[in-house]
Amino acid sequence: MRPNLMVIVPALNEEGSVGAVVRSVRAVLPDAPVLVIDDHSEDATADVAEQAGASVIRLPIHLGLGGCVQTGYKLAFELGYDYVVRVDGDGQHEAADIPRILNVLVETGVEVVIGSRFVETGGRHTSVPRRLGITFFRLLLKPILGRTIYDPTSGFVGVNRRALQVFSRSFPLSYPEIEVLVVLQRKRFRFMEVACRMHPRRAGKSTMTFGKSFRYMLHVLLGVFVNVLRFDGRGRSGVKEAGQ
Amino acid sequence: MSFFSVFFVLGAITVIATLVSLRREHIRTEYSLSWLLVGFALAILALAPGMTAVARKLGIDSHLALPIAGGVLISMLVFEISHRVSKLRDENVMLAQRIAILEFQLRQIEERRGEPGN
After folding, report:
1. How many Cβ atoms are within 10 Å of B1's Cβ, its own excluded?
2. Which residue from B108, B88, B85, B93 is spatially nearest to A68, judged by alpha carbons?
3. Domain count, chain B
4. Which of A58, A55, A81 is CA-nearest to residue B112?
5. CB contact under 8 A, A63 and B101
6. N or C: which end of chain B has fewer CB within 10 A?
7. Measured on CA atoms in the order A31, A88, A49, B112, is the torsion positive or negative?
8. Residue B2 DSSP SS3
9. pLDDT tens digits for A2-52?
């Protein structure tokens, strides 16, 4: 039986790339619905996505990445999907890798699978500042999670229905990727990393300026700290190493 | 005007401004209560005869006691406002998500029926 999968694409002002992202996903998985969540873009992101064949949720106000992704999770959960894979709207993720993430989700039963640019490929297209940030968070998370997560900022993520249920109720609203890892640990969810290819963004500019990057670091540090304070001490045994 | 009467006037202005805002419906009753309490507390502390003695006992300059007390009161108020803003933000996000999902589902129903909205 074919897995009941939805692909979600959070997007903010991505008219230059979102169409190609939707088409590439549809080419790889013609039967899977593609849902673009438009975070109140000022450009034609929603129209371009619809023309490319995606269903589009248009947020009435800008919610930020976490709120945007959670909207997709909520809808997917309500519609009864068993698996959701998130792909970014800037074209950095390779649609051909979605089946790999899905297969690991289905075959291993882990709740979350993270597409990692570092597990095999070494992250060729990653800028030096981002690489430094990733290394910092990798070192920070290691003692908390009891294992190394090679690409903790990756937005290429697949979840199963159990994780979907939790995330549709509670999800970090601003910069979710790293905080979610600590939440997963607390919930005793198992997660794995699989090797994926990453590309430079297809069009447009990243919204991450130097000031925003600094705020991102502080915000994530605080989020991790708060989630560690909530840690109930049961997590580590539930974590599954990549490749197991 | 003495140092203490400045704080009495500040407290009185806070109370009056809050009452005027309430009357003009610029502020809701539940949010005005904290401001009224701060205003009254400032005014009462400024008039309290034992304020200087208490400050001396705590080893604080009597001229610093009122600004410190006022600062603490305002900080508590700002903290409470941050609480409320956070709660409102969460509710706002939830509502925006619900509206977006309902609109999406409505559009799908209309498309299925072949009755696009006006």
Report:
1. 7
2. B93
3. 1
4. A55
5. no
6. C
7. positive
8. coil
9. 789 999 999 999 999 999 999 999 999 999 999 999 999 999 999 999 999
- CA pair distance A82, A80, nearest whole angstrom: 6
Decide if B101 is inside a domain: no
Interface predicted TM-score (ipTM) = 0.81
Q: What angle do CA A192, A20, A158 make, to 5 degrees?
A: 15
Cα gap A6→A35, rounded to integer Å: 7
Per-residue pLDDT, averaged over B15-21, amounts to: 93
Q: How far apart are CA A174 and CA A68, in angstroms?
A: 9
| Pick from B49, B51, B38, B30: nearest CA to B11 | B38
CB burial readout A60-90, b (16+ within 10 A) else e: eeebbbbbbbbbbbbbbbeeebbbbbbbbbb
pLDDT in tens, B23-75: 888 988 888 888 999 899 888 888 877 777 777 787 877 777 778 888 888 89
8 Å CB contact of A59 and B108: no
Q: Is A196 on the interface with B (CB under 8 A)?
A: no
pTM of the complete model: 0.80
Residue B56: inside a domain: yes
Q: Closest Cα partner for A61 from A37, A85, A88, A44?
A: A37
Domain assignment of residue B100, yes or no: no
Residue of A34, A40, A71, A79 to mutate for B, most B C-beta atoms under 10 A:
A71
With respect to residue B43, please indicate whether it lies within any of the assigned structural domains: yes
Helix, strand, coil % over all residues of chain B, rounded to 5: 85, 0, 15
| Token pair for B109 | 């129903």
The whole domain housing B49 covers: 3-85
Q: How far is A167 from chain B (nearest CA, A)?
A: 13
Min distance A60 CA to chain B CA atoms (Å): 6
